[in-house]
Amino acid sequence: MAEPKSSRTMWKLYRYAIGGENVVGIGKFPDHANLYFYRGVDLDDGSGLLQGGGKEMRSITLRSPADVERASVKTLVRRAFRLAAS
Length: 86
Prior knowledge:
By secondary structure, the chain is an alpha+beta fold.
């Protein structure tokens, strides 16, 4: 499948779940990726990274591979999985 020409078109989506409940998703766009937190409104985001205004989901835009390595991003991913497991 060819990568879409529009930077606003999601190319692929990977979901990670616990017990059938979606926890985190990664959406690939041509020039960035978004890390989706399905229960983002319930996460403690002291870093101010989470974006979005939907009922439950929040996301983080990742512009480079180095963005994933930030401690604040790793902390939010751990919190999301702990929340889903509780």
